[in-house]
């Protein structure tokens, strides 16, 4: 008599989704998850950043390893060394800029506050006495010192979290090879192990593609912005360039802030409006060209995300984890989209998360088919090596 096969996970999910108990338990899990995200931020934030840095590092290593100089391919150990050097150098540059200019920013706050008050008084005199009082009340509520202290605290928190990120990543790299071998060994059979490994590989490739492209265009944004800030004599040009780089990871709002904030600083710093206009127009042109022309031409449909859900994700993760959550909102959403696209029972969520319903990632069947073709010639023993 044929052995009865257990019901699949997908069919079980479909049956249970129509019950009240399912939605009750789902709501309870969501509430507990949000509570855990808030309370565990000190542990989860560095770990999440470390995962993204690891994915970016793997992407850089794989691309360096694929380089061929004539008939010779770059050795894997050289690719690892070069990839680590590239990513680590980027973090060191950012850390040095933030640490070296943090004290200068704190010293400049009184000067900027005085200059801002004078500028505000000039604006009040232009609009007349009728609107002056309401504007003064609005300006009184603006705490520039508090903003600056908050920004410095965020920078110091970044530097503290950077140590944990640097601590986690080497161990993740060390686990990369063994983890590939663990999937087939842990699976009940060779086919299941191959399926799981192929799906994980497809998810990794999607995240790598997003991070490598986003990091590249963000570096270009920071460099081109710095090319405008420095000749204009803008104070702390390096810090504003790093800020333009980081804000480019925040969808929609990040690009606007990357232009508005340095432009306002120029308006307060200089006596004429010319630097303000140059920075606003120049940086605005850079942000528009990179965000609407260069990046879409590179990514194609690989980030086919719903604009509303992008903003919703931005709001949610900013509420949960602050500025760090804003930086992580889109990478987390991309990862969720890729995972949902590979689980048949959750594929409908991936379709709803997409812009037009067309998923730009391989399905689980396609991933398994590709994985089977790539490992078809391997003997069974090779799966457990």
UniProtKB/TrEMBL annotation:
What is a biological process (GO) this protein takes part in?
Answer: transmembrane transport
Q: Which InterPro entries match?
A: AI-2E-like
Entry GO terms, CC: membrane
The record's subcellular locations are: Membrane
Membrane-crossing ranges are 21-38, 44-65, 77-98, 155-174, 211-229, 241-268, 275-294, 314-343
Which keywords label this protein? Membrane, Transmembrane, Transmembrane helix
Membrane topology category: Multi-pass membrane protein
What family, per the record?
Answer: Belongs to the autoinducer-2 exporter (AI-2E) (TC 2.A.86) family.
Q: What is this protein called?
A: Predicted PurR-regulated permease PerM
Per the UniProt entry, what species is this protein from, by scientific name? Tropicimonas sediminicola
């Amino acid at each position: 008599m044929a052995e009865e096969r257990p019901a699949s996970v997908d069919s079980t999910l479909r049956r249970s989704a129509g019950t009240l108990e399912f939605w009750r338990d789902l709501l309870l899990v969501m509430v507990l998850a949000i509570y855990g995200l808030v309370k565990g931020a000190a542990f989860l934030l560095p770990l999440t950043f470390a995962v993204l840095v690891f994915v970016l590092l793997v992407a850089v290593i794989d691309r360096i390893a694929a380089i061929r100089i004539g008939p010779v391919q770059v050795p894997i150990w050289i690719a690892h060394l070069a990839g680590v050097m590239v990513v680590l150098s980027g973090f060191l540059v950012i850390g040095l800029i933030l640490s070296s200019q943090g004290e200068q920013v704190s010293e400049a706050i009184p000067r900027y506050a005085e200059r801002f008050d004078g500028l505000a008084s000039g604006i009040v005199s232009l609009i007349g006495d009728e609107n002056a009082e309401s504007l003064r009340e609005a300006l009184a509520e603006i705490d520039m010192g508090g903003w600056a202290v908050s920004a410095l605290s965020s920078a110091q928190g970044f530097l503290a979290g950077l140590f944990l990120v640097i601590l986690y990543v080497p161990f993740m790299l060390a686990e990369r090879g063994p983890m590939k071998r663990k999937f087939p060994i842990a699976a009940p059979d060779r086919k299941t192990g191959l399926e799981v490994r192929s799906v994980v590989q497809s998810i990794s490739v999607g995240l790598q593609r997003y991070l490598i492209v986003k990091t590249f265009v963000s570096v270009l944004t920071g460099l081109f912005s710095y090319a405008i800030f420095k000749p204009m004599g803008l104070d702390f040009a390096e810090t504003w360039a790093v800020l333009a780089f980081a804000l480019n990871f925040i969808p929609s709002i990040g690009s606007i802030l990357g232009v508005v904030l340095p432009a306002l600083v120029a308006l307060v710093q200089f006596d004429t409006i010319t630097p303000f206009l140059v920075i606003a127009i120049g940086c605005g042109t850079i942000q528009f060209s990179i965000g609407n022309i260069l990046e879409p031409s590179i990514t194609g449909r690989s980030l086919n995300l719903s604009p509303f859900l992008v903003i919703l994700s931005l709001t949610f993760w900013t509420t949960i984890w602050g500025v760090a959550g804003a930086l992580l909102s889109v990478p987390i959403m991309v990862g969720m989209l890729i995972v949902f696209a590979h689980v048949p029972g959750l594929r409908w969520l991936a379709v709803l998360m997409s812009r037009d319903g067309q998923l730009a990632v391989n399905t689980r069947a396609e991933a398994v088919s590709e994985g089977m073709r790539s490992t078809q010639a391997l003997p069974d023993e090779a799966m457990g090596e």
